[in-house]
C-alpha cells in the first residue's frame, strides 16, 4: 500500500529542516570527526524533542502519524518559524494549540513612504490592538504629538481615554470613544489570547468606568470609514471624512486617512495647518514615524 503523499511530504520537510540546523544552532556539542549528514542527525532531533530516535525515524519515514503535542515539540526542536509550523501541522492534519508568537510590529516601508507623501492629508498607520505604529506631521498637528507618547502606550484607544485633551478635541467624544471600544472588541476577536490587549483592557477598565461599561456591552465595529468633527485649538472646527486602507500583504497594518471636501472650510483649515507644520518641520523629531 502506498503511503499518504502528505506523510511523505511531512517526512521530507522534517529532513530538509534538520539539514539546515547545525549542532551549534541547536546548542548541542559538535562531536569529533566529520559528520556524515548535513545539519542535525535524527537522534539529535529526537533528543531535542524529548522522544525516542525510533519514534522520530518512523515519523520522518511516514510510517506513523505524530500527535499534535509531538509535532509542537519537533517544531520547537527544529526552530521553525510560524509559517513553517503551520505548514507542518497542515501536512499532519493537526491543529496547533499554541498561540502564535507576535513579534514587535514595525510599520512597512511602503506604507511609511505613502503616508509621508500625504503632506496635506493627516494619516496614521494602525497595527494590532489599534496601536499607532506611524504618523505623518499633519496627523501629529491635528490629533496629538504621538512622538511624546511612550511607545508602549502609543495606542489610539488608550490615548482617547487617558489624554484629557481628546475630550475637547472631538466634538462628540463619547460617540468617538464608544466606537473605538467596539473596534477594539473586534480586534480582540482576532487575537483573544493577546496578553498586551488583555493588559490594555484591564488598565482602561480600572481607569475609566465608561470604558468598562462599553467593553462589557460587547458591541463590535470594523475599522472602515466614517465622519468626525474636531474642534482644533488652532484652526477651529474640522469636519473630516476618515477612511481605512488595508494592506493586502499584512492585514494587521492599516492606513487611516482624514480628508475634507474640496473648497470647504475644513479643507482650507487643513491647508493652513499643513503650512504651519511645514514651516516647523526642520525642528520636528525624526522619530515621528517610528514604531
Automatic annotation (TrEMBL):
SUPFAM superfamilies: lambda repressor-like DNA-binding domains. Residues 34-85 form the HTH cro/C1-type domain. It holds the Pfam family HTH_31. InterPro entries: Cro/C1-type_HTH, Lambda_DNA-bd_dom_sf, MLTR_LBD. SMART domains: HTH_XRE. GO terms for molecular function: DNA binding. Transmembrane segments: none annotated. This is XRE family transcriptional regulator. The lineage of its organism: Bacteria, Bacillati, Actinomycetota, Actinomycetes, Micrococcales.
Amino acid at each position: 500500500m502506498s503511503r499518504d503523499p502528505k506523510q511523505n511530504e511531512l517526512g521530507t520537510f522534517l529532513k530538509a529542516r534538520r539539514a539546515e540546523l547545525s549542532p551549534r544552532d541547536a546548542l548541542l556539542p559538535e562531536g569529533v570527526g566529520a559528520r556524515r549528514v548535513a545539519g542535525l542527525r535524527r537522534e539529535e532531533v529526537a533528543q531535542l524533542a524529548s522522544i525516542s530516535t525510533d519514534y522520530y525515524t518512523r515519523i520522518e519515514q511516514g510510517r506513523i502519524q505524530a500527535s499534535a503535542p509531538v509535532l509542537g515539540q519537533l517544531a520547537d526542536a527544529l526552530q521553525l518559524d510560524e509559517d513553517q509550523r503551520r505548514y507542518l501541522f497542515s501536512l499532519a492534519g493537526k491543529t496547533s494549540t499554541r498561540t502564535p508568537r507576535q513579534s514587535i510590529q514595525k510599520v512597512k516601508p511602503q506604507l511609511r513612504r505613502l503616508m509621508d507623501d500625504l503632506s496635506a492629508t493627516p494619516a496614521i498607520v494602525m497595527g494590532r490592538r489599534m496601536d499607532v505604529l506611524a504618523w505623518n506631521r499633519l496627523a501629529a498637528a491635528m490629533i496629538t504629538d504621538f512622538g511624546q507618547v511612550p511607545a508602549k502606550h502609543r495606542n489610539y484607544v488608550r490615548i482617547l481615554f487617558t489624554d484629557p485633551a481628546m475630550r475637547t478635541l472631538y466634538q462628540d467624544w463619547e460617540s468617538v470613544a464608544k466606537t473605538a471600544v467596539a473596534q477594539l472588541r473586534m480586534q480582540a476577536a482576532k487575537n483573544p489570547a493577546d496578553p498586551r490587549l488583555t493588559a490594555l483592557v484591564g488598565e482602561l477598565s480600572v481607569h475609566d468606568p465608561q470604558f468598562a461599561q462599553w467593553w462589557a456591552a460587547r458591541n463590535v465595529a470594523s475599522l472602515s470609514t466614517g465622519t468626525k468633527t474636531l474642534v482644533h485649538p488652532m484652526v477651529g472646527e474640522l469636519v473630516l471624512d476618515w477612511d481605512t486602507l488595508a494592506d493586502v500583504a499584512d492585514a494587521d497594518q492599516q492606513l487611516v486617512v482624514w480628508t475634507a471636501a474640496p473648497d470647504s472650510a475644513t479643507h482650507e483649515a487643513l491647508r493652513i495647518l499643513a503650512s504651519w507644520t511645514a514651516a516647523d518641520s526642520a525642528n520636528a523629531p525624526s522619530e515621528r514615524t517610528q514604531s
